[in-house]
Amino acid sequence: MANIISKQASELGIDSTYFRYYKSKFYTPHVLLLNKVDSKSSNLKKYFKTFEEAQAFAIRMRTGERSVYDEKTFGSVLILFKPYFIKVATRNKLTRSTINDCIRNLDVISKIFMNSHGKHLSEIYINEITSGDISLDIVEYLHNEKSFSFKTITNYMSCLRKVFDFSIRKNYIKHNPVVKNSNVLYADIPKKNQSIDSSAVVRLHEGFLDEFIDCVDKTIERAIPSKKHFFTPFELLRKKVCINFAGSTGLRSGEMRALRWQDVNLDSGLVQVNHAIENKTKKLNEGKTKNARRTVPLKANTVVLLKQYKLQSKYNKKDNFVFCRKDGSILIMNYFNHCIIKHVLPIYNEKLPKSKQINLSWHDMRHYYASMLLYSDKFKDDIEAIALLMGHANTNFTKEVYGHWFASDTSRMERLQKKIEAINF
């Protein structure tokens, strides 16, 4: 294929003077000087991943070659791609939220990005979008103009790559301009540090959960008269159950809100996590990761609280939500932060010196659960079990987020050595 393109280029008089090689442009080093091909061209340069890609583009410009796929804009391809993607993604058992996120990302990027000619991405011909347009224009635009993070841009590019893969299958284009290796393509974009502040382990000490729950009863003393109905005995019990449940199971807030009584076995002390609430659509989905569907054991005091809570709740049938609103509907997304943390945290901080006061979000209850597992003798080295209980996609993510909490290699080897010494070979 490369020889055919080179031969066709030489026949049209397209020689090496039309191209440049910039080593500094590590991903798109091959440059076509557009004014060499067409003197009327206002753009001076266009960047490509491979030399053959640059030659093929120059040939199309020189010959004015038009085919049926030249008339396909990114927007028209996107319309064809959506039903195809939904069908394939459903067959591969992707969650509905993942499918919706991908389609939404593509709609957003096709509308917000505008090139130097004032055209939106949806208006640009699919075969005119090059590697340079992706790495030098779209990625830089998302980072500099929209202030998107490395992770967000990676997600957008992953969705964009799927569209170009689809275009290759349909013979609209021959090369995918979106690179697979995001670490190479977005090397200049700083990654967000996902590690958790290790000082949080010291602040959220063992016994923190009981101390925090003890502060719930005092919230009624601070309630203004018009809000007293939010602090009835049952409401206070529900807040205690929510705090205890979150800190002793590590469930995400969306998983807690989606929990039904049929998922909770109070006799065996087990919780089956089957669904989560998607915050934007408020619909049930299969969870954030492939391992989100899991079984989590309950502590004895959590079971006691849940039994007491179930007896007092009007909505205690199998298909009712465990944590619900007064009418039995799904709790709002910010219930845990606005209705619990907001009222309880100031009371908890009052008894602490100012230097040791903490700032807490509901998700920190999940981190507290992880810290208790990691610092216990039972789970100290069992990263697979911790990842399973947390519902992480894989153990690599567990290491990335909580790696600084794991025991050092030296102490781990000392414990292994003692175990080996105890074996009578």
Radius of gyration: 28 Å
Q: For the report, how would you describe the main beta sheet?
A: 3 strands, antiparallel
Q: How many distinct helices?
A: 19
Give a count of the beta strands, DSSP E runs of length 2 or more: 8
- Mean pLDDT over all positions: 78
First CA to last CA: what distance?
A: 64 Å
Structural class: mainly alpha
User: What is the chain-wise order of helices and strands?
Assistant: HEEHEHHHHHHHHHHHEEEEEHHHHHH
Question: Largest beta sheet: what is the strand line-up?
Answer: 1-2-3
Estimate the helix proportion, in percent. 40-55%
| Overall spatial form | elongated
Characterise the protein shown here.
There is one protein chain. This protein has 425 residues and is mostly helical. It is 49% helix and 6% strand. The chain has 19 helices and eight strands. The strands form three sheets. It has a three-stranded antiparallel beta sheet with strand order 1-2-3. Strands 4-5-8 form a three-stranded antiparallel beta sheet, with no helix packed on it. It has a two-stranded antiparallel ribbon with strand order 6-7. A hairpin with a 6-residue loop joins strand 6 (276-277) and strand 7 (284-285). The radius of gyration is 28 Å and the shape is elongated.
Question: How would you concisely characterize the structure shown here?
Answer:
With 425 residues, this protein is mainly α. The protein has 19 helices and 8 strands. Helix 1 crosses helix 3, helix 4 packs antiparallel against helix 5 and helix 10 runs antiparallel to helix 12.
